[in-house]
Amino acid sequence: MEILTTITTVLYLLSTAGYIKYLIFQKNYLFKAGYGLLLAGFFFHSAAIGFGYFVSGHIPVSNLYETLVLATWAIVGVFVAFQFRFQIRILGIYTAPLAALVMIAASQLPKTAMSGQVFLKNLWLLFHIVAIFVGEASLALACGAGLLYLLQEHAIKTKNHGFFFRRLPSLDLIDTTGYACLVLGFTMLTFGLVTGIIYAKSFFGRFWGWDPKEVWSAITWLLYAALLHGRITMGWRGRRAATMSIIGFGVLLFTFLGVNFLLKGHHGQFTGW
Fold it and tell me: 91 and 147 share a domain?
């Protein structure tokens, strides 16, 4: 798995270089190179996760290293799907560097799996993990779209029709893409929380235990629910929605990583993350 993830990281780094050159020079062949390298990295990434599953007999999330590898795979996979749907090429300038950086960070972590991972073979937990990771990947891309929106809006409002104005898509396209990422992310996050509650009942004998991870997951869900409600009922669009997407992703990152480092709970004791 380590060799495959190393190849994946190199391809993501090369993809990042391709996207940076595309951002600067706006040549179609540079986009194709960046996107092609990202797809190649995703192929090897998928092979690494598949190999990990074959060896362990369960989805590879038994430590923080495996978790970050899987999270990055989800981000790239969701990006590929949205690229096919919305053709927002420049979002790759956010996705490729993010994937490369997370993979590099993951490579510095211990790779030894925690002992006694029988619970990972539970079907409800499998549904929970897949839904949560796809949802969080979608919300990570919503954050990226929010950043692009703010850059383009600033260029328009200041009438500085320079570097970013000529290279970023229209505000409507960025906003539509961000909204689609938000809808998918919130839907999958909801499904992930529901399946997690069902799993908790089957494994721990209770639906809710006020574990810090559970509490912050609920806070994150409520934040995104408020954002989605605002968009649907109050017409939140543009700058407000973009800013909320960025803030929401910050809270999501804390829930995903910060809780287990700063707060004590049973979740990290079982999985290492």
Answer: no
How are the residues of the chain apportioned to helix, strand and coil, as percentages rounded to the nearest 5?
85, 0, 15
What's the CA gap between 229 and 235, in Å, rounded?
Answer: 9
Classify residue 229 as exposed, middle or buried by CB count within 10 Å of its CB (0-12, 13-18, 19+). exposed
Closest CA to 135 of 178, 222, 71: 71
Q: Read off the pLDDT of each residue in 191-206 and give the average, rounded to a whole number.
A: 84
Q: List the structure tokens of 233.
A: 């009922």
Whether 209 and 258 share a structural domain: yes
Question: Are 97 and 205 within one domain?
Answer: no
How far apart are the C-alpha atoms of 16 and 11, rounded to whole Å?
9
The tens digit of pLDDT for each residue in 8-57 reads: 999 999 999 999 999 999 999 999 999 999 999 999 999 999 998 888 88
pLDDT, tens only, 163-194: 888 889 999 999 999 999 999 999 999 999 99
With beta carbons less than 8 A apart as the criterion, state whether 149 and 195 touch.
no
